[in-house]
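Q: I'm writing up a methods section and want to include an example of the input and output format. Could you take the sequence below and give the corresponding predicted structure tokens, formatted cleanly so I can copy it straight into the document?
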Amino acid sequence: MTTRNITYGKLEKILIDRGFTRAGQKGTHLVFGHKDIDSIVVLPAYSRPVAVKPVHVIAVKRALVDNGLMKTEEFEKVLNSIIRPIRAKKIRLKNIIKR
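A: Here is the clean output for your methods example:
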């Protein structure tokens, strides 16, 4: 699965929309925390329009799904809604979602 159409800005928005806040920056990485769960997400401090690496999509998915903030199906739907305007055909997210 390619993630070239998902940017760090869009991935950050998914976190913010689910109650995460930017907790600070450690060197070249941004730290996001959530007031209701004991979990953080660390993403590289790349420019917001840069395409994400699959490992970062997986990290966000695990933080949201494993902590009960989203269901796997909802996460897949959100990713598809980000990708669809850019690509005409539906992208399969099986490789990312199953990790």
